[in-house]
Amino acid sequence: MHELRLVGTLVIFAGTLVLVLVRPRRWSEACWPVLGATAMIASRLVTPAQALDMVWASRNALLFLLALLLLAALLEVSGFFEWAALQAGHRARGDGRRLFRNVFVLGAFVTCVLSLDTTAVMLTPIVVAFVKRLRLPARPFVIASAFVANVASLALPISNLTNLIFADAFGISFGRFALSMLAPQLVAVVVTYALLRWRFHAELPPVFAPEELAPPASVIPDRRYFRVAIVVLGFVLVAYFAARAIHVEPYVVAFGGVVVLGGYGVRRRRVDLATVRDISWGLFPLVIGLFVVVRGVENLGVVAIAADWVASVPRHSLLRVLVAAGASGAAANVMNNLPATLVASSVLQAAGAESSGVYGALLGLNIGPTILPTGSLATLLVLDVARKKGEPVSGVEVAKTGVWLTPIVLFASAVAFALVDG
Questions:
Q1: Which one of 49, 140, 295, 378 is most buried, counting C-beta atoms within 10 A?
Q2: Residues pairing with 95 in the sheet
Q3: What is the pLDDT of residue 41?
Q4: Neighbours of 34 (CB within 10 A)
Q5: In Å, how far are 165, 205, 320, 345 from 311, measured between CA atoms?
Q6: How far is CA 271 from CA 43, 62, 70, 81, 184, in A?
Q7: Inter-residue contact 74 to 265 (CB < 8 Å)
Q8: 305: number of Cβ within 10 Å
Q9: At a CB cut-off of 8 Å and minimum separation 6, what does 165 contact?
Q10: Sequence-ordered alpha helix ranges (H) in 336-372
């Protein structure tokens, strides 16, 4: 009976991940985790009560994700992303290498304050479009978008769903998270940019024709709404840091920004039902389905085994950070970073891990998935967007860069954290 339970759980788990990544018949990624969760419950590998407990325990992260998606959609209506991309283009002043730097920095900013999925879905198509217009090679910019979307997601809890899950599970405040991740985030971004700049130095043209780009102001449909959007975004970011001090969950702050900006957008007739309809609603069944599927794996007892191994690693040391980062990064590439995050969270809680283990795992879950394109949904989204825009870049190209770049960036970031934390 135990063998059947083991085989059944692993088959459903592996099958779900493969189907999410392969997407047969181009069905939405969300279909397969829902089917996997249904199979887990129908096979009694997960009880309905356990499934509900998983969802309830992650409610803050899910609500935050919803608020971020809504806020990003309202910002897109204002023309913010296209305006920012055109600013990056014009400020390059005809220098192709400076343009690469500006796009990378813009991607890092958007990822930090609005999440890696926003960079993948909203910023990438704009960058690809104007790179095509300038008749520049798109491959360096597409690959840079895929890497910066993951690597720059360490900065804040809102930058990545993995961060939200960990911050919620371990009670990490917004300010403490940002302060702890400041050094490794800066190192990760700088090292990644330097390595990518070296990697593509021969493909980046020294000059381009900036007059081919539209003026940034031309893409702002409503100046008043645009200005209000910028102000609301600024207030929301500042309020995140104060929220925990007054015992307010960060998602409440985000929803406050959504209400203010959305209300003003409706008044200015810039926001309607289409704005809400175009949100990536499929993320929610995908995430919830994976929660349930991973719970089935946890029921096998693997968490207790892994927790014993984690507990045996020396505490408060660079070794501890490197082991946590390496193990979680490897897991993220094998099973995708979201299910890896759920498993890692349970393992670290069971092991009673301290900050070096928790933050080390986060380094691996954010930076590590860039070895294989299947390690992160954001990478897959970037490649899919580029393909739809007529600039296909294969996953093999990403892997050829990631296999050497990722370990360097992960090691440098882990050392930066250990030096600051120690």
A1: 378
A2: 207
A3: 92
A4: 19
A5: 21, 51, 10, 14
A6: 45, 23, 11, 16, 38
A7: yes
A8: 12
A9: 58, 61, 341, 342, 345
A10: 337-351, 355-367
CA of 192: how far to CAs of 74, 103, 143, 318, 401, in Å?
30, 13, 11, 21, 11
Coil, helix or strand for 207?
strand
Question: pLDDT tens-digit profile of 303-353?
Answer: 777 777 777 777 667 888 898 999 999 988 877 788 888 888 888 888 877
Tokens read off for 122:
């909203």
Whole-number average pLDDT of the chain: 87
pLDDT at 367: 95
Phi-psi region of 391 (alpha: psi -120 to 50; beta: other; left: phi over 0): beta
Cα separation, 22 vs 41, whole angstroms: 24
Determine the Cα–Cα distance for residues 26 and 44; give it in Å rounded to an integer. Answer: 29
Average pLDDT value for residue range 185-190: 97
Contact 146, 382 (CB under 8 A): yes
From the CB of residue 102, how many other CB atoms can be counted at a distance below 10 Å?
20
> Would you state the pLDDT for residue 316?
64
Rounded distance between C-alpha atoms, residue 24 and residue 28, angstroms? 9
